[in-house]
Amino acid sequence: MQRRGVCSIGRGGLAVSRLLRRALDGVRKAVRLYGWRGLLVRLPQYLQLFVREVRPVTLPGEPSVEGAASMQVPTRLHPELAMESGEPAMIDACVSVVIPTLNAGAEFLPLLRKLKTQRGVRQIELLVLDSGSKDGTVAAAQAAGARVEVVAPGDFSHSGTRNRGAELASGTHVLFMVQDAYPIGDWWLHGLLRYLLDHQEQGLVALSCTEYCRDDSDMMYECNIASYYRFLGCKEDDRMAQFVGNGHESLRTMGQLSDIACLIERERFLQYRYRGEFAEDLDLGVRLIQDGFRIAMLASVKVIHSHNRPALYYLKRSFVDIEFLKRRFADFERPRPVSAQGLMAGAMHVAHLLNRERPVMTDGAGHEPQLLEAGFDRWLDTLRSEVSPALVVHQEFSLGDTRMETVLRQLVAEAARLPASHPKDVAASARAFVDDFIARMAFFNQYACSVYGGSEPAVGQAWWEASCKVFAASLGVNLADMYLDRCERPEADAERTWLHTVARQLMAGV
Amino acid sequence: MRILIITNDYAAGPLASLTHHVTHALVRLAQREGHHVRVGSVVNSTTSHGSTSWVGGATVTALDASVAHADPAAFAQWVQAQHADVIHCLAPSPQMIDLPWQQGQGPTVVTLTGWREVASAVIGTAPAWLRQARHRVCASTIAQARWQASWPDLNFRVLPHGVDLLALLRKFPHVAESAHRVSEPTIASLVPMDLSASVRWVPLHPVSLLGLESTPDAVVVPPVDATGFSLVANECAALGLPCLEPAGISAWLTQWASTSTPTALQAMDQPMPTRIEEEAFFYDCLYRH
């Protein structure tokens, strides 16, 4: 008895000490980011967060989050590296690879060649669903021996087209892929299928593999994907997930599948099918775990895939992400920005300082390039100390993406025409945006400095471009927060009308 | 993960040799995966020993093997200061990067990037650090057979060097496009060419098609078994560019003229050669294994 008591006190003590340590770390981080004065201003907000942290999150009858972590399984070696005792046995299955295409480009044929020559699986069927390519994608797919189904461009949808592919497929399993992904190794498909079959008895019904960045990815993408896989718990380990709770974080962590490469038994898929126009892979994974199945994200078998997208994409994408998460998960809460003019004032302030920073970090105007880490820290200090309290329109700025610059100018001009907000609200919202950007940049800097060093202009340029993308993502998130907040208000006002127009513009084409 | 790469003369650039091409790509891709990479570049210069520079955001330290051997304690201290989780050595032969590694501090992975006939003459005994490495890697089964014949008690794993597919497609988009349109490209179309006017000799280095100034219609490379590995042949295979590998270099003209038995690679019928990203991922797995 005594022993049990000691043990229990010990556990409680450990939890308290962990909590205090985290609080102390939080204070240190806030002081580093905002200074002591900034910390005092934000104290009420931090206390709220602390209280939320202290409150138990596990619902009665639900397994704990610690239980979820234990679902990480020892990572296997990629089959290509595990052939010391000979090649693995052929798997007697037929996998239909379903790839929706639109102007797939020069990299598509290498992908088909790679898929065609995969080893260790009895039969592979290539199914290409093309929605109006004009670059010879269809001819190339046919030459590679793929079965091609033409989808009228107006009929294309991420879910519907893939569902159609699964209906047409003749395999026992269906593997959804995208046109710009590329398997690693000649035994890649074997590795995916072997894992699925080996864990069937544990309830595993679908899996995806993680991405390995292409040689032309950008720093922002690399940082995003690394932190996302850490969030999912599959950066270095294979992870098998099951239902833990209905909270949005739990469902998003446990229920993630990825259309970059998603393998599932065809019959099972046809019972569920994809739904919706965005994040259909996450939606499928969530429904599967909610029904008691398990899904997996593999790190032992990867697929080459990444992007190098312009800043405007990040603006649109982050807006759509927030809008989707709010719509899909009832408990997904976000801050509510007060003033549109304030938000755009903060955005303009950051854009202006990004523009001013470019020559310093990239040596473009004969400046002495700085050591990256020191340069980053100095710049964050500048951002902190120079927040402009009102909407000042700087006409001349560059963000490395002319379309992003045009959209930003348009948004600022439109916000300036809205009925004037109270100056205190404008200042608070501007500050909140700058704070949000600083927090994102601090996170990004930490990543960038852990990988890169020195003072080379090329690295500085890559950092500056990534900073513009961080800025765009930050603006997209904040605009989405404001849009969702105004949508919930009973009366329509000028801000809401404007935000509806902004939403239509940002959500188009993502 | 903190990775220490040891190679010969890293600052010479990615197109200086096969080893350089591979090493620069591996450093770049390890950084893309979020690893912190440092490079120890073995140079033949006592004066630059210990000097540091930055290449692509990675610290590069010049190491002169004779200076390191003269003061093994200082070298051991330098290795310790790198705080590396993994040490990966890459060189055509162990002799080119022979450093005074201390017991328990040596490389995790050693890649012998190629095979030269000259190497066999100076091969000698395998150094202790090569014997103690967790993984020994070479790029082809031919190279594997030769290294293993030299040191029968050592196992070598084969990992082909990867082609930079994205750079190739950017540099030669029309080649890839025409190869894709014609499902089985042959060198038949080249026969009517005026050979004396069309043929250009380029030296063995640069070892990648990316080092060429113009676009070839076809490529002739020395037989793979003379070098152990040909990145150019793999690059041709990736692009669908006809590539001849005559048995003897003097016979290449004869082979060119006779289209009946060419060893031209048929684009769609051949497996894709390894990409640099694949090679880098496989090393990532070995680092953790």
Quick take:
The complex is a heterodimer of chains A (510) and B (289). By secondary structure, chain A is of the alpha/beta class.
Give the secondary structure arrangement, pairings included.
The complex is a heterodimer of chains A (510) and B (289).
Chain A: H1 2-41, H2 43-54, H3 65-69, E1 72-73, E2 91-101, H4 108-116, E3 121-130, H5 137-143, E4 147-150, H6 158-168, E5 173-177, E6 182-183, H7 188-198, E7 204-212, H8 219-232, E8 238-241, H9 248-254, E9 261-265, H10 266-272, H11 280-290, E10 294-304, H12 311-328, H13 340-362, H14 372-385, H15 402-416, H16 423-451, H17 457-488, H18 494-507
Parallel strand pairs in A: 2-3, 2-5, 3-4, 7-10
Antiparallel strand pairs in A: 1-8, 5-9, 6-10, 7-9, 8-10
Helix pairs in contact in A: 1-2, 12-15, 12-17, 13-14, 13-15, 13-16, 13-17, 14-16, 16-17, 17-18
Chain B: E1 2-8, H1 18-32, E2 36-43, E3 52-55, E4 58-64, H2 65-70, H3 72-81, E5 86-91, E6 109-112, H4 117-121, H5 128-132, E7 135-138, H6 141-150, E8 157-158, H7 165-171, H8 173-181, H9 195-198, E9 219-220, H10 224-227, H11 231-239, E10 243-244, H12 252-257, H13 276-288
Parallel strand pairs in B: 1-2, 1-5, 2-4, 5-6, 6-7, 7-8, 9-10
Antiparallel strand pairs in B: 3-4
Written overview of the protein:
The complex is a heterodimer of chains A (510) and B (289). In chain A, strands 1, 2, 3, 4, 5, 6, 7, 8, 9 and 10 form a ten-stranded mixed sheet that branches. The longest helix of chain A has 40 residues, at 2-41. Helix content of chain A is 55%, strand content 12%. Chain A has 510 residues and is α/β, with parallel strands linked by helices. In chain A, helix 4 links the parallel strand 2 and strand 3. Chain A has helices at 2-41, 43-54, 65-69, 108-116, 137-143, 158-168, 188-198, 219-232, 248-254, 266-272, 280-290, 311-328, 340-362, 372-385, 402-416, 423-451, 457-488, 494-507; strands spanning 72-73, 91-101, 121-130, 147-150, 173-177, 182-183, 204-212, 238-241, 261-265, 294-304. The radius of gyration of chain A is 25 Å and the shape is globular. With 289 residues, chain B is an alpha/beta fold. Chain B contains 13 helices and ten strands. In chain B, the strands form two sheets. In chain B, strands 3-4-2-1-5-6-7-8 form an eight-stranded mixed sheet. In chain B, strand 1 (2-8), helix 1 (18-32) and strand 2 form a beta-alpha-beta unit. The longest helix of chain B is centred in the N-terminal third of the chain and has 15 residues, at 18-32. The two termini of chain B are 13 Å apart. At the A-B interface, helix 4, helix 5, helix 8, strand 10 and helix 16 of A face helix 1, helix 7, helix 8 and helix 13 of B.
